[in-house]
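Morning, I've got a small favour to ask if you have a moment. You're getting the sequence in one-letter code plus the fold written as tokens. Thanks so much in advance, here it is:

===
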Amino acid sequence: QVQLVESGGGSVQAGGSLRLSCALSGDTIVRYCLGWFRQSPGNEREEVAVTGGFSTFYGDSFKDRFTITRDHEKSAHYLQMNNLKPEDSGMYYCAAHRGCTLENMRLWKTYDYWGQGTQVTVSS
């Protein structure tokens, strides 16, 4: 059974950095597209960053500041968040799906497996 376990997150001042980690167990991540999504109160989950095959995408609010990477040996993927802003605050979830396409990999509803979520709070 595939499971995702997140770590990282926390509280930081604006302009600071955080790194989120997501470890996948039960399979090899080679077969999966991997992503990070954010959910703030009252809003639907939104794309932060996704990667699969030879493609990587970022949500408009996060590009140029956030970087998604994957480590096949460690069966994990990461989100490096730099120059954080208060509006970046929210619950961040990692996700995995086997067999993404370019048409669906940016949609949170595509993903089958989810981490438990980690809170990111950025103060001004």
Notes: The chain has a mean pLDDT of 96.
